[in-house]
Design a protein that fits this description.
elongated
Length: about 400
């Protein structure tokens, strides 16, 4: 029974969410390449030996690998050292194509495309992830609308950051750091990542806008989805009776606009938090790897099925929660892939920038060294995040209990 629960609450939802995000990312590369007339050999979801594969009329092999933790699009010419070509590699590839009587295909090979076309193809993957997030947020808002809770203060904890700043019962928070706020969730998400940072607030008090400054305090909280987290808190309790909520309906354009705004907010918050992490202002123990994401997926699924009266309602609840999680993960994947690290899309764009300036590709040996360093960095980060996951899931405590 435990195995079935793990399968349906963790493994299958995790693979569905990751599969959606990865497939959309690779489709971004694929569709951009197709639109620009690029010859494509393979589109693969997953790595390793193919579980199933087929070839379409255009000669593209579609493959599903047995290890579903990523994917790739392989362009013609990528099966050899020319995957990281310099001028000599490109010349050799051109000679080979001419000698084989395939000179007419040269313009379709990715590495012979103009720099701007290659940049579009590479950048299309991360931007497809952002488009997926916008689409999910917009679709949910247009289909279901939204219950919004304006942040009206119902209680101020004594000796809290809010009490020191002068918040009062009845205040309504309308702006934080110059950004207009419409809901409690918006304010809460901003405060959670600003522990120890003085933050400006504007509240409506007796019909007047009053400026306050508070420094959220770090606090470890047990979140039903993310588990134990160190987050910033003010010490405010919002008014949240049924009468405090406002239902908002969205048309198509309003939903797309709000979906875009939410995607931007997620991206901005991610960049801000990672910046604080890199400068040592916050701990790196919140980084999550595949195990941590799988655990979050399980918790999100459980919350979605709780209290559902029938199987259909369970699927609906779980599906809605997983869709929102997929949007958040998609933004993170898009952002991470734009980092200027070799092996990531941002690393390719960095090399193209060099090529555009110098009018020749970076030497293949230098590119290869860069990719090895980039791969080491990515793998090291994944190992570190996995270590955090194991610590968070108390795996070592379990082993200690088994052998004590």
């Amino acid at each position: 029974m435990q195995l079935l629960q793990t399968l349906f609450l963790a493994i299958i939802p995790f693979l569905l969410v990751l599969g959606l995000v990865v497939t959309v990312h690779e489709l971004g590369h694929f569709l951009a390449a197709k639109a620009l007339g690029t010859k494509i050999d393979r589109f693969s979801i997953g790595f390793g030996k193919a579980l199933t594969s087929w070839t379409d009329k255009s000669g593209v092999e579609w493959r599903l690998g047995w290890l579903p933790i990523g994917g790739y699009v392989r362009f013609a010419g990528d099966e050899n050292a020319a995957s990281i070509p310099d001028a000599e590699d490109l010349a050799a590839m051109r000679r080979d194509l001419v000698s084989q009587g395939r000179a007419g295909e040269i313009g379709r090979y990715f590495h012979f495309k103009p720099i701007w076309q290659r940049a579009i193809i590479v950048a299309a993957g991360p931007f497809a992830n952002f488009a997926l997030a916008i689409t999910i947020f917009a679709a949910l808002l247009m289909s279901f609308g939204e219950m919004v809770l304006p942040f009206r203060v119902a209680g101020v904890s004594p000796d809290s950051a809010a009490a020191a700043a002068g918040f009062r019962v009845g205040d309504r928070v309308v702006a934080v750091n110059g950004r207009e706020m419409t809901s409690f969730n918006e304010v809460q998400q901003l405060i959670r990542v600003r522990g120890g940072v003085p933050t400006s607030f504007v509240v409506l008090r007796d019909g007047q806008r009053t400026a306050l400054t508070a420094t959220p305090q770090w606090q470890v909280q047990d979140d039903p989805v993310a588990g134990k987290q160190r987050v910033g808190v003010l010490g405010l309790r919002p008014a949240q009776s049924a009468n405090d909520y406002i239902r908002i309906r969205y048309g198509f354009f309003e939903a797309v606009g709000e979906g875009t705004a939410r995607t931007w907010d997620v991206l901005r918050t991610t960049v801000y938090y990672l910046g604080r992490m890199l400068t040592g202002q916050v701990s790196t123990d919140q980084l999550r790897g595949p195990l941590g994401i799988a655990d979050v997926t399980k918790n999100v699924t459980k919350l979605g099925v709780q209290g559902a009266p029938d199987f259909g309602a369970m699927l609906m609840g779980a599906g809605l929660n997983l869709a929102q999680l997929a949007a958040l993960i998609s933004v993170s994947i898009g952002f991470m892939n734009l980092l200027p690290v070799p092996v990531l899309d941002g690393g390719h764009l960095m090399f193209y920038a060099y090529e555009a300036i110098t009018r020749r590709p970076l030497a293949a040996k230098v590119q290869a060294a860069g990719y090895r360093v980039g791969l080491a960095l990515v793998l090291g980060l994944m190992l570190f995040a996995t270590w955090n996951d194991l610590q968070r899931l108390r795996v070592f405590n379990l082993f200690g209990g088994l052998f004590s």
